[in-house]
Amino acid sequence: MANKKYNVKNYLRERFFPHIWCPGCGHGIVLGSLLRAVEELELDPTNTVMTSGIGCSARISGYVNFHSLHTIHGRALAFATGVKLAKPKLNLIVPMGDGDALAIGGNHFIHAARRNIDITAIVMNNKIYGMTGGQFSPLTGYGQKATTAPYSTIDNEFDVVKLSKAAGASFVARSTTFHATESIDFIKRAISHKGFSVVEIFSQCPTHYGRKNKKGDAANMMENYKNSTVPIGSKKLEKDPSLIERGVFVDNDQAPEYCDEYEKIIQVASKGRA
Amino acid sequence: MNNKIKFVQGNEACVEGALYAGVDFFAGYPITPSTEIAELLSKELPKRKGKFIQMEDEIASMAAIIGASLTGNKVMTATSGPGFSLKQEALGYACMAEIPCVIVNVQRGGPSTGNPTHVSQGDVNQARWGTHGDHSIIALTASNHQDVFEMTVEAFNLAETYRTPVILLFDEVIGHMREKIQIPEEGELPVVQRLRTFVQKGVDYHPYLPREDGRLPMSDFGSEHRYNVTGLFHDMWGFPSNNPKVVRELLHHLVDKIENNVDQITRHKEYWLDDAEYILVSYGSSARSAIHLAKNRRERGNKIGVLELQTIWPFPKELIREKCAGARAVIVVEMNMGQVLQQVKCAVDDPASVFLANRIDGELITPTNIKTLLRVIQGKGV
Amino acid sequence: MERSRIVLSGSGGQGVITAAIILSEAAVIYENMNATQSQTYGAAARGGATRSDIILSDSEINFPKVIQPNILVCLTQEAYDSFSEIIRPGGILLVDSKYVETKRKVDAKHISLPMYAKVMEEIGKPIVFNICMLGALIGVSDILKPESVMKVLKTKIPKDFLEMNQKALDLGLKMGKDSIA
Q1: Is the predicted pLDDT of residue B318 greater than 80, yes or no?
Q2: How many domains does chain C have?
Q3: Cβ contact (<8 Å) for B63 and A75?
Q4: CATH number of the domain at B269-377, out of 3.30.450.180, 3.40.50.920, 2.60.40.1590, 3.30.390.30?
C-alpha cells in the first residue's frame, strides 16, 4: 500500500467532515481500505449505492460520494435488496456494525445471504454498541464488560464467518484493521464477486470496548489483532487453537445469484406460462 | 385481460388498480386478509418486467419498497394489522426522506393477532399516528370494488405528487368479497408519473429544495446526481443537520405539504344530502350498510343522507362541517370504538349532535344496527 | 328478476365456495346482472360448516351479506342444522338427500334431491358434485341460464374436464326441473 498512490479524496464528500468517529477508532481505516478497493476496481460512483443502517459504522454512507442511503437501525440490507432487485446494474455496498448487522438486523442478514443477492456487506466488528455508549453486542462474547454488563456478559457471540457460510453467502472473508492491505484485497474480491459477499473486519473501539475491558489504547488493540489472528490453516493453530483465522473462507462463483434468477422468472412469465 | 368487465375480490381490484397506475415493484410478506394481493402480483409483475419479492418479514418489505422507489420505480406493499404495526418505523422513514410509496392495509380485528379473518376498521388512528414524531400522512379508503380500483390509482398519483407514503385503508369485507369492476381504458383515469429533475450534469442538484409549487423533483439512484438520503433531519442537500432552523423548517414542510392541500387531496361521495335531516358519515364496507339503510328509509319518506369519506387523512374537517351544518343529527357509522367519530365531533359546530353506530365483533355492521340507533335518536323507540 | 339472496352451505372440500363464485360470475359477466359473493373464512375451508352468501340483482347492491336467503342450499346435516332457520318464509331450501335429513320445521319449499348419488352413479367423480348442485339450483329457481355457467367454466378449467362438468350440470338441471314440475 505504501508504494501505491491513491486519490481516495475523490470519493469523499468533504462537506460531511469532520467525521463523527473518536480518535483511534478503526472505522476510518476500514473506510480507507474500502475506498482504495473502489479506486483499484475503478468503480463508477454513478452506478454505486452505499446503504447503511444506524450506528458509528453506518455514517460511512454519508461520507462517500456515491448514491447514499442512510436508513434505519438493522434494515440496511432490506433497503439494499429493494434497490438491487429494482436496478440490478447497480453495485450495492453495505457497511454495517455488529449490532446493526447481527442483532436488530440478524434476520435480514441471514436472508440476504440465503437469497445470494449481489450485495457486499462489510461487517465492522468492534464488539460493542459505540454510538449509544458501550453496550454489549451479539459479537462481544462471554465474560466481557459493557455498560449493560457491569458484572460481565453471559451472552455468547456469533461467529460471523460460520453464520454467513451456513446462511448461504457465496463469498466470506475476515480481516482486521491491522491488516489494512489485506482488507483492500478482500473488499475488492467481495465487490467483484457476483452474489452475497461478507467481509468481516475487526475494528477497534478504544473508547467503549477497549477502555472497559482493559485492552489498552488503539495501537495496543491493533497490535492484539496482529498477535491473535493468523492466516487460514496456519501451523500456529496447532500450538494455539485460540488464534482466530483470517482469509477468504468461501468463494463460490457457481451459486445462482438472485437477480439473475429473477430475470429467468421474467422470461418464463413473459411467455405466459404461469 | 382483454375483457374489461371482471368479477373479482377487492384485493384483486386493488392489484388491477396498481397495474393500471404502473406499479413496478412489490415487496410483501403473507398475512390474512391481504395475501391475495401478493399472490396476484407475483404472477402479474414479472409478465410486465416488474419485480416481486417475498421478503423475510413485514419490516423488510417496507424497507425494500423504499429502496426500489429510489431507483425510480412505482412501489407498493400490502399487509394487515400486525404487519402494519411492524412497518411503522420504515413508514416514518419514507415520510422523513419523502419517498413515494403505497402501503395497503386490509384491516382485520385487533389489537394483536386479534380476529384475522374478520372485518374491522380499527387502524384509522394508527394510519395517522402509527409512526413516531410529528408528520402528516395520506390515507384513502373505498366501499366498492370500482372505487378500490380508482383509489389505488389515486394512491400512486398522490404518492408521486406529494412525495409521501400513501396508505390504502381497506378492510376484510372489501378485500375478500367479490363483485364487478370495469377496468377503464388507458388514459381514462389520470396517471401521475414521477417528477424527475431537469438539472443537468455538473450543475448542483438540491434533492430537498422544493420548487415554487412545493414539489421536489427526484433523481433516480443510478443516474447522474448522487445525493444523500437519510432519516435524520437534513438540509436541502440531504445532509444531516440538527440546526434548529433546518429542523423546524423541514418539519413544517413535511406537515404543510399535505395539510395545506386538503382540498386537492380529499375525495368523498354524497348520497341525498341536499335536504337530509339525518346524515350518516361512513367509509369502507360500513358505508355500504349506511347507503343501504338510507336508500331504504328514503323510500319511506325519511330525510336521510350519507356522506362517504374516501380520504380519511388528511381529515376533511371543513367538508364535514359544511355538509353537516343543517343536520339534526350526524351518525358516524364505523367498525371501531369511534375513531372517525372523534374527528367528526371536532369538525362540526355542535358535537353533541354526533352519534356513533358501530360494530366491533368482527361482523359487518348491518343496516338494522344503524336503524336501531337512528330510531332512538328520532325518538321513535327501538 | 328483482333480487335473489342465496346462501350456499356445506362442508369444506365440497366445492361450495367455488360454486358460489361460478354462479355469481356467470350472472355478472354473461347476464349483465350485479352480484356480490362473500364467504366465511378460516378453518371451515378444511372441513366444518362453510357458507357463502350471494346476492344477484339488476340494481346496485350495497349491504353484501345475506340475512334471510330466499334460496338456501345445504349439503351437510351440520349446515342444515345451522342455517335452515334463517330462510325467508316460503323460500327454496335445496338439500342433498344423502347427506341431509330434513326436519321441516321451517316455512320453506323443501327440495331434497339425490345429487351426490346421481353424480357418483352417472359420472363417478365427486369433484363435480358442486356443479350438479348448481344445475339443480338453476333448475328449481331459473335465476340464470345454464349456458352462462358453462361459459364461466370454459375460462376456469381445462378442456378435457368440460364434458364431465356439462354432464353434471345437466344432471342437476333435470333433477331440479323435474322436482318442481
Answers
A1: yes
A2: 1
A3: yes
A4: 3.40.50.920
Residue C70 sits in a domain whose CATH number is: 3.40.920.10
Q: Which residues pair with B280 in a beta bridge?
A: B306, B331
Fold of B5-182: Rossmann fold (3.40.50)
Q: What is the mean pLDDT of residues B56-83?
A: 98
Across the range B58-67, mean pLDDT stands at 98
Grid cell for residue B14: 386493488
pLDDT band, very low/low/confident/very high, at C46 (cuts 50, 70, 90):
low
B334 falls in which pLDDT band (50, 70, 90)? Answer: very high
Local confidence band at B1 (pLDDT 50, 70, 90 cut-offs)? very low
CATH number of A8-270: 3.40.50.970
Cβ neighbours of residue A220 under 8 Å, at least 6 residues apart?
A210
Q: Which residues of B170-201 are buried (b: 16+ CB within 10 A; e: fewer)?
A: bbbbbbbbbbbbebbeeeeeeebebbebeeee
Segment B100-110, tens digit of pLDDT = 999 999 999 99
Low-confidence ranges of chain A (pLDDT < 50): none
Q: In A, which residues are within 8 Å of B224 by CB distance? A: 46
pTM of structure: 0.96
**Cα separation values, B51 from A266, B74, B302, B319, C58, Å:** 9, 11, 52, 40, 40
User: What pLDDT, on the 0 to 100 scale, is given for residue B381?
Assistant: 72
What is the tens place of the pLDDT at every residue in C64-101? 999 999 999 999 999 999 999 999 999 999 999 999 99
Instruction: Assess C181–B contact: CB distance below 8 Å, yes or no.
Output: no
Cα–Cα distance measured from residue C5 to residue B281, given in angstroms and rounded to the nearest whole number: 27
The three cell numbers of residue A25 are 477508532
> Cβ contacts (< 8 Å) between A79 and chain B: which residues?
63-64, 66-67
DSSP B255: H
Residue with cell 455496498: A93
A129: which 3 cell numbers? 454498541
Domain boundaries of chain B, sorted by first residue:
5-182, 269-377
What stretch of H or E contains B13? helix B10-21
- Chain C residue with CA closest to B295: the answer is C62
Q: In a mutagenesis test of the A interface, which of B69, B101, B221, B241 is the best target, namely the one with the most A β-carbons within 10 Å?
A: B221
